[in-house]
Write a structure and sequence with these properties.
This protein is an all-alpha fold. It contains 14 helices and no strands.
Length: about 325
C-alpha cells in the first residue's frame, strides 16, 4: 500500500506539469488584452503599455510561464488582474460553495440511483425495470441548464417556495443556505443519478448471476440479505469508481449550473475570470481542479481495499 501511494503521488508531478502548460498557453488564446479589458477601449496607449509592463505581459511567453511556475512551487499563485486579490485565497473561498454543492448532489444521486438500480436489476424485464431505465435515459438526455430553468420556473415562479438563485453561507444562515441549495443540487443530482442508476443496474445484474449468489439462495438465505449483503457489496467497486469521477468533475466546478443559479463556486469564478482575461485566476483554477481530480481518484483506489479486502494495491 505504501509503495502504491508513493508511486501515485509521484505521478502527480508530470500530470500537473502538463496541466500547467495547457492552462497557461490555452488561456492566452482568448481574444483580447487584459490591460485593455481593465482600462477600457478609450484608455491612453501609454497607460495600457505601462499596465502591460506592470503585469509582465510584455515579456516572452516562456519567461512568463517559468516565472509563474516558480511562484506556484513556492505556494504563490499570484494576484488577480481584475481585483488585485491573491489568487489562492480567492480559489479557496470559491471551493467551499462548490464542495457543498457537490456533496449535496452526490447524496441526492445516491438516494435516487442505488435503490432504483437495485430494483431494476432484481426485477429485470418488468415495469419497474422499464420505468427506471426510461427515467435514467431521460436524465442522461436532458441538458442540465434546461432542467435548472424548469426547476426555477416551477418552484420559484409558479410555486414560489424556493429562491431562484443566490447563495448564503451555512454559518450565517443554515436554513437559508438549504433553501438556496435545493434547486442547484437537484439539477446536478438528477443527471448524476441517471448515470449511477445505469451502472448500479448493470453491475447488479452481473453479480446476481454469480455462483456464490446462487449458492446463498439455495441455502435459503433471505432475498434481502442476498441482495444487500452479498450482491450489492460486491457490486460497489464500479459504482465507487463512477462516483469518484463524478465528484472530481463536480469539484472542478459545474460551470452551467453555477452560472444559472449564481452559485459562487469554482465554475462561476472561472467563467468570470475568462471574460475578464484574468490569467492568474484561470490558470490557478485549472491547476487546482486537476490536483483535486487526481487526489480524488487516489482516494477512490484506497476505498477499494475497504470495500473488498481481496483487492490489494501494490
Amino acid at each position: 500500500m505504501g509503495g502504491f501511494l508513493l508511486s501515485r503521488v509521484m505521478s502527480l508531478v508530470p500530470i500537473l506539469l502538463g496541466t500547467s502548460l495547457v492552462a497557461f498557453f490555452l488561456v492566452r488564446l482568448i481574444p483580447g488584452d487584459p490591460a485593455i479589458a481593465l482600462l477600457g477601449l478609450e484608455a491612453d496607449p501609454r497607460s495600457i503599455a505601462a499596465l502591460r509592463t506592470q503585469l509582465a505581459l510584455d515579456q516572452p511567453l516562456v519567461f512568463q510561464y517559468l516565472t509563474w511556475l516558480g511562484r506556484i512551487l513556492t505556494g504563490d499563485f499570484g494576484r488577480s488582474i481584475q481585483g488585485g486579490r491573491e489568487v489562492f485565497p480567492l480559489l479557496l473561498s470559491a471551493l467551499g460553495p462548490t464542495a457543498l454543492l457537490s456533496l449535496a448532489s452526490i447524496l441526492i444521486s445516491l438516494a435516487i440511483a442505488v435503490p432504483a438500480g437495485i430494483v431494476a436489476a432484481t426485477r429485470r424485464n418488468t415495469m419497474a425495470d422499464y420505468g427506471a431505465s426510461f427515467a435514467a435515459l431521460c436524465g442522461l438526455s436532458m441538458p442540465s441548464f434546461w432542467l435548472g430553468v424548469l426547476l426555477i420556473l416551477t418552484f420559484s415562479i409558479y410555486i414560489p417556495i424556493l429562491p431562484a438563485s443566490g447563495y448564503v453561507s451555512p454559518l450565517l444562515d443554515p436554513l437559508g443556505f438549504l433553501r438556496f441549495l435545493v434547486l442547484p443540487a437537484l439539477t446536478l443530482g438528477a443527471a448524476l443519478a441517471a448515470a449511477t442508476m445505469r451502472m448500479t443496474r448493470a453491475t447488479m445484474l452481473e453479480v446476481l448471476r454469480a455462483d456464490y449468489v446462487r449458492t446463498a439462495r439455495a441455502k435459503g438465505v433471505p432475498a434481502r440479505v442476498v441482495v444487500w449483503r452479498h450482491a450489492f457489496r460486491n457490486a460497489q467497486i464500479p459504482i465507487v469508481t463512477l462516483l469518484g469521477i463524478q465528484m472530481g468533475q463536480l469539484l472542478g466546478g459545474v460551470v452551467i449550473t453555477e452560472t444559472v443559479f449564481s452559485w459562487p463556486g469554482i465554475g462561476k469564478l472561472t467563467v468570470d475570470a475568462i471574460f475578464a482575461r484574468d490569467y492568474p485566476v484561470v490558470q490557478g483554477a485549472v491547476l487546482l481542479t486537476a490536483t483535486l481530480f487526481v487526489l480524488i481518484n487516489l482516494i477512490t483506489d484506497v476505498i477499494y481495499t475497504i470495500i473488498d479486502p481481496r483487492v490489494r494495491l501494490a
